[in-house]
Amino acid sequence: MCAIVGIYGNENAARLASLALFSMQHRGQEATGISSSREGKIYTKKDRGLVSEVFTDEALEYLKGNMAIGHNRYSTAGGDSILDAQPVYAKYKLGEMSIVHNGNLINKDEVRNQLIDNGAIFQTGMDTENLIHLIAKNTTKDKLKDRIIDALDRTVGAYCFIVQSRNKQFVIRDRYGIRPLSLGKIKTGGYIVASETCAFELVDAEFVRDVNPGEMLIFSEHNDEPESIQLFEPEFRPCAFEYVYFARPDSVIDGKNVYSTRENMGKTLASNDNVNGIKVDMVVPVPDSGVPAALGYAAQSGIPFKYGIIRNHYVGRTFIEPTQEMRSLKVKMKLSPMRSMIEGKSLLVIDDSIVRGTTSKRIVRMLKEAGAKEVHFRVASPEIKFPCFYGIDTPNKEELISNNMTKEEVCKYIEADTLEYLTIDDLRNSIGNDRNYALESFDGDYFVTK
Ligand code: AMP
C-alpha cells in the first residue's frame, strides 16, 4: 500500500510534498518521510507518526530546496521499525540518492540473497533497499539513469519508484501499471507526481496525465518538461482493489473517478439482488468505506438510504490492539448503532469487502444487539480468496474467510440473515469493462512474471 509523491521545480517543494502526503494519509499512517535536495545535497526527515505530527514548521525549514520526494508507510506485520520508513537514502560512487517506493517486488528475496552472497549488508527488511544496492554496485555504467534502468531489469513486481539525486528526479511505473501514479502541473511552478490525484487539490496542481505503465519520467534542470522514456512494453493491469477499498473517493485513477466506480458497484449489487420478497426498510452503509456503494444501491433499488451506523473519526486505521479485549472493543469504539433508527427494522448493510470476516461479524452483532430485526449483508466486491502479492496488505490464505468457507458458511459465521457479493464480472463492469484489471485477490491469477 503506501503513498509516494515527488515535487520538482518549486521553491516550497517540501511543504507541498507534506501537503500531498497529508491528503494521502489513508494510504499509510505508520511512518512518513521527505527528502529534499538543495545546493547539491540531500536532506531527509522521517519518523513514525502522522504527516501532521512529523512535518512541523521546523522540519520543513530544514527540508529546503526546489525538489522533494515523500512517502507514507502502511503498517504491515513485523516491519514497524523506524528503519523501514522511507525515503531510503544512500551515498555511493556517483554521489547521493534517495528513493521512495509504493508496491511490492516479488523477486525481492532472490535478488537480496544474491546481493548478500556478494557481500552486501542490509539495514532494513524493505525490498526498496534492493534497488539502492543494485544501483550502487553497478560498475559498468556511470550515469544514474542507466544504473536505474539496469537495476529495473532485475526487478520484478508491482512498483512505483521515485529516485532523487542531488539535481534530478526519476519516476518509474512498472510495466503493468498495477499501482496508480499521476502527473500534475503546480500552478505556482513545477510538477507533482503522486500516487493519487486527491493530492493535487491541496497543492493547487492541474492533472496532466497518468504516468504510463513501463514509463520513466526524468525531471532535470535541462528540460522545462519531464523527459519520457518508455522502458518496458506495457501490459496494463491496474489494481481493482484501489477502486474497491483503498483509494480516496475523490481520486481519479487511470481516468476513472473512484467514487463513481464504487457507486456503480452498489448499483450493480442492487440490480442483481434477489431479496426474494424480504422487506428491507433501509440501506445502511458501513462508514466510511461502504458509503458510495450504499448510495448506489439505494438509488438503484429505491430503498431509503440511512446513516444507521455512526463512525467515530478519532479511531484511525492504525489503532493499536494489544489484547483480545481491546480488539473486541475496536468496532464498538469506531462504529456506533443509531438505535432509534434501526430498532425493529430490517437493514440491508453494505460494506466494501470482507477479508477475515471479523469486522462484519461484529457489525452484524452490534446492529442486532441494538434492536435490528434482520441484517442482510451486501459486499461491494467479490469473495477474497487469494492473498495479494502486488502491494495490498492482505493476510495469508488461511486467514481469508472466503478461502475457507462457502458464501452460506460465511453468512452463518457473521450471523447475517442473508449475504451477497458482487461477482468478478460485475466488479469489472462497475469499474469499466475496457481494461484487464488485476483481480488476483478474487481469481488467483498471479500474472506478474517479468
Ligand atoms: P475483516 O473482514 O474484518 O478482515 O475486515 C474487512 C474490512 O477491512 C473491510 O470492511 C474493509 O473496509 C477493510 N479492509 C479491506 N482490505 C483492507 C486492507 N488491505 N487493509 C486494511 N483494511 C482493509
List the helices and strands and how they pair.
Blueprint: E1 3-8, H1 13-23, E2 31-38, E3 41-48, H2 51-54, H3 57-62, E4 67-73, E5 88-92, E6 95-105, H4 108-117, H5 128-136, H6 144-153, E7 157-164, E8 169-173, E9 182-186, E10 191-194, H7 198-202, E11 205-210, E12 215-219, E13 227-230, H8 240-246, E14 252-253, E15 256-257, H9 258-272, E16 282-285, H10 291-301, E17 309-311, H11 324-334, E18 335-337, H12 339-342, E19 346-351, H13 358-369, E20 374-379, H14 401-404, H15 407-413, E21 418-421, H16 424-431, H17 440-443
Parallel strand pairs: 16-19, 19-20, 20-21
Antiparallel strand pairs: 1-4, 1-10, 2-3, 2-4, 5-6, 6-7, 7-8, 8-12, 9-10, 9-11, 12-13, 14-15, 17-18
Helix pairs in contact: 5-6, 9-10, 9-16
The structure holds adenosine monophosphate.
Q: In words, what does this structure look like?
A:
It is a single chain. The protein has 450 residues and is of the alpha+beta class. It has 17 helices and 21 strands. The strands form five sheets. Strands 3-2-4-1-10-9-11 form a seven-stranded antiparallel β-sheet. A six-stranded antiparallel β-sheet has the order 5-6-7-8-12-13. Strand 7 (157-164) and strand 8 (169-173) form a beta hairpin. The protein starts with a strand and ends in a 7-residue tail after the last helix. 48% of the residues are buried.
Mean pLDDT: 93
- Annotation, overall tally of beta strands: 21
Number of helices: 17
The share of residues in extended strands comes to 15-25%
Kindly report how far apart the N and C termini lie.
21 Å
Radius of gyration: 23 Å
Strand order of the largest sheet: 3-2-4-1-10-9-11
Summarize the main sheet: 7 strands, antiparallel
The shape, in one word, is elongated
Uncertain parts = none
Give the names of the bound compounds: adenosine monophosphate
Helical fraction equals 25-40%
Structural class: alpha+beta
